Amino acid sequence: MRIWMVALLGAMTALPVMARAPFGLQWGQSMAGMEQVEAGNPIGVLSIENPPKPHSRASSYWGFGTSESGLQKVVMNSIEIENDAFGTEGKALYASLVNALLGAGYQEENRLESVGNALWNEPDEFYQCLDYDGCGYWIWFGRDASGDTVMVKIEGVRRGQGRVRAIFESPKWNTLVDASQQQQAARDSDAF
């Protein structure tokens, strides 16, 4: 009996440990079926159709990673918000996501909430301003104890229309991006 217990414990320690990611996903989980964003770049994108724990206001999820690293970044796009010239609905969804993240253990690192800095400065031009470079930002940044980072932002599409996007990155994401850029630079140098 002891031999079986030792064998079982040995097998369990050999299993890969995957950290918790948002929406019931796991950092490091398979990226099978991913598409390459650009030729030669090992980082790919995967449309996540049915995450285990979906958000009620999400319309789509994207996963990013490599075949070796597995999932290392998740993007949630909200349903498109329409007929909301003053940004009331978008701001409410943004605030509910930020509050949920704070409740889940994320700590605020930064917040930029400003509109009307250029061209579109009327209260009913909220989304137009967010869509115009330099006019405004509605972004929150957080980090949890394990080093996962998140950015929640409102994006403008046109007058009265926008969406909220939440971008989650594992602690390994920046290292993965750096390695990918170094590989691409080496390939570019080798091209001559």
Q: Care to describe what's here?
A:
It is a single chain. This protein is 28% helix and 30% strand. It has 192 residues and is α+β, with helices and mostly antiparallel strands. Strand 7 and strand 8 form a beta hairpin. The radius of gyration is 20 Å and the shape is globular. Residues 3-16 have low confidence and may be disordered. Residues 1-19 form the signal peptide.
Per-chain topology:
Layout: H1 2-14, E1 35-36, E2 44-47, E3 58-66, E4 70-78, H2 88-103, E5 107-114, H3 126-131, E6 137-143, E7 149-158, E8 161-169, H4 173-190
Structural class by secondary-structure content: alpha+beta
Shape annotation: globular
Provide the helix percentage: 25-40%
Classified by CATH, the class is Alpha Beta
Kindly provide the radius of gyration, computed on alpha-carbon positions and rounded to a whole number of angstroms. 20 Å
Q: Which strands sit side by side, in order, in the main sheet?
A: 1-2-3-4-8-7-6-5
- The CATH architecture is 3-Layer(aba) Sandwich
Beta fraction of the residues?
25-35%
**Average pLDDT value?**
88
What is the end-to-end distance? Answer: 63 Å
H/E series: HEEEEHEHEEEH
State the helix count: 4
Uncertain parts: 3-16
Number of DSSP strands? 8
Keywords: Signal
Signal peptide: 1-19
